[in-house]
Design a protein that fits this description.
Elements lengths: L7 H20 L4 H8 L10 H5 L7 E6 L9 E6 L7 E7 L12 H6 L3 E6 L8 H17 L7 E11 L1 H12 L5 E5 L15 E6 L11 H7 L6 E6 L12 H14 L7 H4 L8 E6 L5
Parallel strand pairs: 3-4, 3-5, 5-6, 6-7, 7-8
Antiparallel strand pairs: 1-2, 2-4, 8-9
Length: 296
């Protein structure tokens, strides 16, 4: 079904994009790729395909650098970023691992997402025992570090930021999104949190759960979380067939495909990715999919 409304920041962006298209048509001097970029200044990379989203890497070459554990607000980590300097700035994503885990447990997500045109910071938490609230604060601290202090800050558009995480890190991404409604997207993976209602969350959120999760059972975590988020925020729920709580800890194509599509759609405002969100993925790997379907 279509959402009855959409957050104000996305409405404003659409007005901006519409104005840019009108100016392009009036000027009549732009064609091809340059016209597309004028229509959406956040658009990065070629037109998407299923094959491109399912490949081990996207269209951008990437590099990485370490962040010291002495940094303020979180426990350090690794930054992955596109090496291209011809595309302008990129959106950024901070990702937290789960309870007792380190970034290495889900580190495949860093270069995978970055190669589609994002700066990604995979964080280490201050303590592996940190709870979701603390992880949410640390995700926000990592975004602040990226945009204000890091050596890649000039590559980042500080108005286009997102959070993600696994397990308690996924619960932390919900906490971060609720605390900072200016974020453009959240992607909790097998999220765990004692809070079940997220009715005040306003950030477009994709929740990915595992059907056979015995740690954060979808019936008491992912599904109630999804149901409680207002439709006006834009939301989707993807459930992986027979997947355990630990599905993000190995390379998982459905997870990567949908996460990238969601980030491209809401961080880059790239409506070329609508096709992957609505009607959404299907097949033997998917046990459930629900979405408010973003408005184009």
């Amino acid at each position: 079904m279509q959402s009855p409304s959409i957050p104000a920041r996305h409405r404003a962006r659409r007005l901006f994009v519409t104005a840019a298209v009108t100016l392009t048509l009036v000027a009549g001097s732009l064609t091809g790729a340059s016209a597309a970029q004028a229509a959406n200044p956040y658009e990065r990379g070629p037109a998407p395909t299923v094959a491109a989203l399912e490949a081990s890497r996207g269209p951008f070459a990437t590099a990485q650098q370490s962040v010291s554990s002495t940094v303020s607000g979180f426990g350090g980590g690794i930054i992955y970023y596109p090496t291209s300097t011809s595309e302008g700035t990129f959106g950024a994503v901070a990702i937290s691992p789960g309870y007792t885990a380190s970034w290495s447990s889900i580190s495949w997500l860093g270069p995978r997402i970055a190669s589609h045109g994002f700066v990604v910071i995979g964080i280490e938490t201050n303590s592996v025992l940190d709870q979701p609230g603390s992880r949410g604060d640390q995700l926000l601290a990592a975004l602040d570090y990226l945009t204000r202090t890091s050596s890649v800050r000039t590559r980042i558009d500080a108005s286009r930021l997102a959070v993600a995480g696994h397990s308690m890190g996924g619960g932390g991404s919900l906490e971060a999104a609720r605390s900072r409604p200016s974020l453009q997207a959240a992607v909790p993976l097998a999220p765990w949190n004692t809070t079940k209602s997220w009715s005040t969350l306003r950030v477009p959120t994709l929740i990915i759960g595992g059907e056979s999760d015995s740690v954060a059972a979808v019936s008491s975590h992912s599904i109630p979380f999804y149901n409680s988020i207002p439709a006006s925020a834009e939301k989707s729920y993807l459930e992986l067939n027979n997947a355990s709580h630990f599905f993000p800890q190995t390379t998982n194509t459905p997870t990567a495909r949908q996460a990238v599509a969601w980030l491209k759609r809401f961080v880059d405002d790239d409506t070329r990715y609508d096709q992957f969100i609505c009607p959404g993925p299907s097949g033997s790997a998917i046990s459930d999919y629900r979405s408010t379907c973003p408005l184009s």
